[in-house]
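Assess this one:

_____
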Amino acid sequence: MRRLLTLEEVYGLSARELTPMMKQYLEIKENYKDCILLFRLGDFYEAFFEDARKVSEALQIVLTSRNGNPMAGVPHHAVDQYVKKLLDAGYKVAICEQVEDPATAKGLVKREVTRVLTPGTLMEDDLLPSETNNYISILGEYKGRLALAISDISTGEVGTSTVMLEDAKDLLEKFRPSQLILQESLVEHKDYLTSGMSNLFVEVFENWNFAHSSSVEYVKRFYGLASLDVLELSETEVTVLGALFKYLEITQFKTFKHLSLPVKLQAPEYMLLDAATIENLSLLPSEKRGSLFETLKETATAMGARLLKKWILTPLTTRPEIEKRLDYVEAFVQDRLLHEEFREFLRRVFDIERIAARLSSGKAVPRDLQSLRSTLQILPYIKELFETNSVFLQIAEEIPDFSYERNLLETALEDEPSASPGDGNVIRAGYNREFDELRELLYSSKEKLQEFEQKEKSRTGINSLKVKYNKVFGYFIEVPKTQLAKIPDDYIRKQTLVNSERFITPELKGFEDKLLSASERIEVMERELFSEICQKLNDSADEFKRVAKILSAADVYQSFATVARKYGYTRPRFSEKRYLLLKNSRHPMVERYIRDFVPNSVVFDEERIFYILTGPNMSGKSTFIRQVALCAIMAQIGSFVPAAEAVLPIYDRVFTRIGARDDVAGGKSTFLVEMMETASILSKATEDSLVVLDEVGRGTSTFDGISIAWAVSEFIYEAIGCHTVFATHFTELTELASMYKGIKNITVAVEETDKGIIFLHKVIEGVAERSHGIEVAKLAGIPQVVLDRAKEILGVIVKSSALDKTVKVLTSEEITKIRKTKKGKMHRNQLSLFEGS
């Protein structure tokens, strides 16, 4: 481990030149060398030496100095926003607090690091994206096997999976964590795992943290379990999960009791979507315009938006659960009044999922309790609303009463509390008598003194009596010497002046003591009262999380209903046999941006399981194949679909191979990436999958490409037998339709005119006569001289290089070989099942 350089080595300073505080700073910094240490000094957090330079550069603040030492500071009340910028710049940040009162400290104030902040350990509302989960992930190994665990500590979610290295990368791309903890022994795979994820913060965790025996104890202690059998985790998953909990405890100085029991990241009841499919179908927001998430997002809460994203990534594969979701969506569609009223109520529902997590971890602030109160107040109305519709009765019954918690918040919390407890504006009047007296004393001290003065005048008969204050003597009663005979026995002389005497009474002394300490006492007491309220509410944290799940799911249902009504979606039905009918289906994203979108229909049945789609560029081939896949995914997440009629099977997976991209950092060419994606489909797809392909084989020479595309098509048809749509410019592939019963040719219609071609965007049976590439080039603005020359060259090539039509249908022996290959391991040379030119 690298040694921290001494001041003499860095700045030429000797130990004698160090103040006690700087010595304290360096002693603490020694244990947090990999962090920027923010050191609390009064109202600021200061960074020194090299940390100061980093802070100054990252935050664009002035670099100052103290005794010649670089320093940079940020105000304590705004530290969160500065910390976020440091994290975004790729730094870890250690927060060093004053852990004793400077007013009562003897000598140097004691300081300790109370938390280490990393991108994946944030819980503060202002630091988190509201509609996206903030995952921390960890990858480790045990006995030669890998496991990945992820958690969003702001919501309490935990998931695990035993994986291969490529699966780990796929899951990382899918869940897009903000932080990856990588076991030291796996550092060699860092570049592969993180390629394409520029904002991923990676931290290496030493191997000893992944000891299986200690991980078992960590997981047991974390969940309070005597045995881990109930979790149904592999040994590797336990090892990695324990290492994650260890990391959280080390950096956060606590265990997180709000974390849920781990779920499987790859479970049979969910469709597994790989990263390529998520990207190719634009399921989640990206730099490209439009995504399925944005298209379906009419949610009214942050919880609902996060759940919608999860549902899109994990479509269901069990029909009863899908139908249950669709029933709720249909009920909202049919009961418009209930739908609109529920949307209105949702405006008062806040992110109680994260609020519950902050309550459990001791990080709740007054604004959290204000939001929780608003949500609990609206719950009875939502419950009553759902009781009016039989479909929602079960949801209504599951909504708890929360009368105790609601009453506590209504009686204890101000209507508009301050940002943090301590200034007397968080706890409502009437909640605590002593606190009310202190606040009343502080805020009405002038009136109290006037009342006391008037009472003393009446009691003594001395109308010239005055109650005064100065910094030396505090509060006192001043009486003219001519009235001294009327002074009561309880007056205690404090000072003699020329014309008057000053006195104190036990009552005034008590008032003075209370008043002078009221501000300090209010700060301490309000924090204590707020903490007590949070502890009482924390007893219901699990119930808050449960109702958060109910409300977020209902929010997604109404979001689906809103979109369905607005854009004319229909409820999908599911076929027992492998039958699909999409009548007049549309692309859910594209139709938002194109006027008069042309719908298209498609059928899969026993006679039609594989379509070869030809047509020119810009005709809509990619749009068509994508909309088939999107409709299938939408149906299985419980959404209505953009079609006049939709009957679908339940697919176990949807695969896509679309577009051309390379991986320069990974040393992979466009064609290699294309072949790797295709190979993954051929090895993972089953009879119950849906595969959409776009231009397989286009990244290499024409005949090589045709050969591969032909062989891939035969393999999918014979060895896998799944529903497939293959869009291609290789019209030679259409010969497959005459050779195999279940393969059909379809094309996108175009109209040729004297002025050029018109794209009709209508999918019909048949084969494209040609690709019309030169016509499309003309539309793009290619000079006419180039277009004319291209036509001449095309004529020569067509005459001299036509594909030899000697490809024969596979024999029964060859088909058997393909099917055996699918059951076993697929080798690249077995793609060469092409015989001919």
Notes: Residues 387 and 788 are 72 Å apart (CA to CA).
